[in-house]
Amino acid sequence: MAKEKAKGRPKKCHRVTTSGDIEVSTYLEIAKEMGGEQPAAAREAIPSAEREAIIVIDFGSQYSLLIARRVRECQVYCELVNPDTPWEKIARLNPKGFILSGGPASVYTPGAPLAPAYIYESHLPVMGICYGMQVLAHQLGGQVTPGTKHEYGHAVLHLSAANSPLFADLPGSSPVWMSHGDKIEKLPPGFIDLAYTENSPLAVMGKDDKIFGLQFHPEVAHTPEGKKILKNFVHRVCGCKGNWTMSNFIQDSLASIQEQVGKGKVINALSGGVDSAVVATLIHRAVGDQLTCIFVNHGMLRREEVERTFNVFRLNLGMNIVYVDASQRFLKRLTGVTDPETKRKAVGGEFIRVFEEEAKKIGKVDFLAQGTLYPDVIESASTTSAAAKIKTHHNVGGLPAKMTLKLLEPLRYLFKDEVRKVGLALGLPEEMVWRQPFPGPGLAIRIIGEVTREKIEILQAADWVVMNEIKKANLYRQLWQSFAILTDVRSVGVMGDYRTYGYLVAVRAVTSEDAMTADWARLPYDVLARISNRIVNEVPGVNRVVYDITSKPPSTIEWE
Q1: Dihedral angle sign, alpha carbons of residues 458, 464, 469, 475
Q2: Which of 262, 269, 390, 515 is deepest in the core (most CB within 10 A)?
Q3: How much is the pTM?
């Protein structure tokens, strides 16, 4: 049997109170509502010596964020912006080129989003992808019409002009991924045909080795040569040097945090997750004892969470930590609550109240530091009106209209893999850096229905088994997340000669790059068998285990 979680106050902490909450990730729209300053440190954390960027004009494609990821893999900073973003905001990033994303619209319909005039007036390289290609054709004098044949899925691209810098080091033909219904009937003046597929005579167009349109999606894994095409555009066409490294990011972030914070004080919610861990370490490296970390045990953490976190941050890194035991307070707040959104908002609202209470005890505090990441920003405050917000993000909810603290979010333009690289560069232990994401509200959103002490203990035990078996099978790093869910379903079972009526536990394991999309993991049957056998034998009150084989979309990763 796995060792039970130690109870009571952890050693080496500064103060114990009975209030608290969890780490929160806040987004642009909420920051505006709060009236706080925008996180300048995060915005400016781009290598200042030779700042360069590729800007993606986001027309609402499900793949837009993936474009930014692929460009950053070329060590070039990339940011998504709305089509109506003013040039002044773009210019500060020192853009070297633009990518126009795909999207669900048709350029010939009234009100269809188009590229801003500065795209063409800047004379910088441009690459349009799918709908972005059609935007180029439409705005530059070509003709786009509804296609007689729609093209979705795999196709084979054949090069008509292999000497284009966009196709350097590419084979004459290669698989690509198509997803379009419209077609380019007539090329804009000055453009030439660069490649074709069986159903798309104009699959790629170009002009002066500077403006390109691609009917397929180079950013997806189904286009094997897509990364090379994007790399050619970024480096050969746009001339980017590739200075977006985590070492540069750290150095710029330290300077930016010092400038933004000045002599002010910062509080940070420390959860033990990689995001809050990296934020805390980065800020501590910049301003030292001006940072106070508040670690909250809201009673819905996993086994041994408190001990592991304190060992790293208090004992090894010497940070100033306030430990807050809020178990009873949160359980009382969640009594009778069953709706998922209400749970999040209840936890989020309590978080703000507690943090402001703790800030008063510390003295004058100026900043609230948070581990907001770029996918958080995109998913919870979409860059376009085309994308609907599915739900309040797992780490946020219930924030009041006004807050006395300013936000400090040095990671808000990073992807999770970039955060891990920063963590390793800062010297954090690999076990913490590679920890799977854990929702801010904790097990509250993995318990379907009302949260009770009994249910928390059941889920902690079941989740411990899942983690233990996943790690024993050396699958932990291959998975984005793996965890147990305690459903509100009870079923009849037989244990020994007795009838049981116990809970059903669901097991969830997914693979993903950034949580925007995810696929259910094909776990080996023997691993699933061990997980199921151990849960029903070791966890009182559970007599049935099921495995979730649904991807995102249509489902979300978490159940609530």
Answers
A1: positive
A2: 269
A3: 0.73
